[in-house]
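Subject: Interface between my chains keeps coming out wrong

I've been trying for a while to get a sensible model of this assembly. When I model each chain on its own everything looks fine, but I need the whole thing in one frame so I can look at the contacts. Pasting all components below, labels as-is. Any help appreciated, I'm running out of ideas.
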Amino acid sequence: MTNIQRAACVGAGVIGAGWVARYIRNGIDVAVYDPHPEAERTCRDVLATAEASLDRLMGGPPPSRGRVTFTATLSEAVGDADIVQESAPETESIKREILAEIDRHAPAATPIGSSTSGLLPSRLQADMARPERFLVTHPFNPVYLLPLVELCAGERTDPHVVERAQSVYDAIGMRPLVVRKEIDGFVADRLLEALWREALWLVHDDVATVAEVDDAVRYAAGLRWALMGSFQAYRIAGGEAGMRHFMAQFGPALQWPWTKLMDVPELTDAFVDKIAEQSDAQAAGRRIRELERERDAGLIAMLHALRDEDLAAGSVLRRHEARLAAPQRVRADLDAPAPLRLLDARVPAAAVDYNGHMTESHYVKLFGDAGDALFAALGLDDTALAAGESFFTAESHIMHLKQVALGEQLEVTTQILAADDKRIHAFHRMHRQADEAVVATAEQMYLHVDTERERVAPAGGTIRANMARLADAHGALAVPETAGRAVGRR
Amino acid sequence: MTNIQRAACVGAGVIGAGWVARYIRNGIDVAVYDPHPEAERTCRDVLATAEASLDRLMGGPPPSRGRVTFTATLSEAVGDADIVQESAPETESIKREILAEIDRHAPAATPIGSSTSGLLPSRLQADMARPERFLVTHPFNPVYLLPLVELCAGERTDPHVVERAQSVYDAIGMRPLVVRKEIDGFVADRLLEALWREALWLVHDDVATVAEVDDAVRYAAGLRWALMGSFQAYRIAGGEAGMRHFMAQFGPALQWPWTKLMDVPELTDAFVDKIAEQSDAQAAGRRIRELERERDAGLIAMLHALRDEDLAAGSVLRRHEARLAAPQRVRADLDAPAPLRLLDARVPAAAVDYNGHMTESHYVKLFGDAGDALFAALGLDDTALAAGESFFTAESHIMHLKQVALGEQLEVTTQILAADDKRIHAFHRMHRQADEAVVATAEQMYLHVDTERERVAPAGGTIRANMARLADAHGALAVPETAGRAVGRR
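Reply #2:
Try treating it as a single job with all components included. I did that and got this:
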């Protein structure tokens, strides 16, 4: 995906551990350094939650997973890193000291990113010998699910390092946003902070409780914010007359006393007590782990929904999934007298029903994926697709022989019963790896189509030759017992 | 649902029309008054969008829909209303005049709610003879999808009117939030306004463009805000140590210069031009109707996802659906000699491949959904499921006859070919509504199973009797030409 092979994470709290999860799930090894005596244990706790969430998000474990190593010293962690993520406490002096040490030990060309929420990069890079490879790389909790990462260069940052960082984060499924000017809080945290200050005033002045303020967000504007920011939302509110009209109409309200602009509430003991007590009431006894699981379940469900609609953060996920799927194509031997083994898959959470069994449509999805793998093996590549060649499934006969459960490993083998210049008659068997049982079969008739003229047409030379080759090799195989069956006829 | 039978909407812009959609979809008649000469046309435009979105949100049109009447005078609209929604322009003098007129003509006990985003109820009720039945009822755009409605009483509002309004909004699927103190902007708009002012500064100061500010929201915090507000998010960030710890750790940042608290940017012509131009670039030529459709598609997908997880706004929808479903279960006529019409569906983006055609697995998903609807019609309800009754698809024969594209409306009809005490042999046809073409067929054999013993078993009394009844009624129908076919045999 990217030429990054080893990342180093310095600081392994919630944010640092989130980075670790992102990297290893993209096949990148990570060395972790955190001097806290409990760091490895707490990091592994976060990783366990993150990996379970990513299994659900991505439909199972990745084909290759990076390794995590905990090192005893900072220099060991960063010594051969291709990128370093610093996620130390949010105190400028501490970060400056750690960043200078990372700079001394990391390879000269390795970008060093700080997870700071709002400290200025020009100040953070001040003590580094090679400040040009430093930038702010500000992620959001949970780092393994939320795609945004803000990139902010300091005065001495090399613009090429920013470009390099963009390509790395893009490759690990994130959405890098380059901040145009160095500013405290960058973009996102300025917005969060403005809302947070107002939220504190509302609780301080007893206009609403902690839970009511949160409800005012999540039952309305929050849903829109998952899709679009205020500008796009207000553009729509303005109607066809556009943004200029909206600004003319609602601009005056900006001068109305609708926020407590002037000040921030003083965090007296009494005020902090009030917030803490109301927050306890809101949590209603649920511990942080439960709240995290609930948060992740909600985020995953929304990311899947947005992926399916190809909108907002779902588009980032969709593109990343497509890229991850691309390199896994199987090389098939077209001359062997044995069914092709074209597909390996694990049953994801999205594919099971309320009884915990794989849904009918997922059987067909896997048979469809096996069909696509067959076409690819026959030579249906991007060039052939661009030339208008494709296959269409005209007819299928599916037999469900055994139920399949969440997490089971399956494979699909494919036998060609017959082929001519425009048809392939195939028989797929879905096997469960654990007991080698055949759990379902699909007999399918594929028609070769000319996608430009939208009609059935003979396949091009290479594909046609491969179809004949494969049909010939499989001619030696016994015809499956249930081939040629109609529904309900024994 | 509620004893409200007639609502009146005074003002039928985007907000007023959104109210109309909410009410009629809950079986409540609405009288609409808006003096603008184009009001009826624009209101009907919004209603068309809203109804299409609600069909998708709720899985089809409601069993009973209220009627909409446009009246020539305000007094006609409100004269026999059980509740009145005022959605006039956001100008205090205009609203006061209209509210006083509504007050003169509406029945004495009818609550009158204003959709104002932030004007004070004590001032709005000042000219009313019966101010006690007035309150602010502030909804969010799109009113027909977002559940929040803020209720704010004025000095002279009767607390019983607030309670009455809560029960009405709850009954039409909303989430009423009673604001504890009268304050400009109530709760939600104060938060929105704080974020909006900061967003304007970021664009004003060239830290980010309009699109970048929006991206900073929707790729990270926005996703969280759809689930939870800042307090809950920060509680989780604080870890097991709780909110007090979080406040101690991050409280000091409140004093850092992370927002432009002191002022609001002046809306000079140059600044408004900048925003308008950047907003045009962000919209990339998409018109408001397209942006609205995209917004609604995203909101519906997220609401469905959150409903399935029973979280945030999805919990409101889930509860409302459950309430609506109780009296509305689609009663299939098991004795009619005609295929059952069990499923309506629209092809979502998730279900099309790179050629823009519906995927094989989605055909099967829709046939599976039709199967589930069939089982429900036969009496497979929660009680039967809990008792271990279920059906299993043993075998299917699918014929793909025509390709189907994104957004097309489909319906599935189901004919029973045969049934005995443990088997149903069914034949589904998928029709495209636009041209009534049959786009695919599925012949399927379902086996009744005992889920506890995990084996095929005779159906229970009610279901078995219904199976026989249906098979008997369908015995009069002609057997479909392609029933009993095997793959590749013509």
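Reply #3:
Confirming on my end. Chain A touches chain B through 153 residues (CB under 8 Å).
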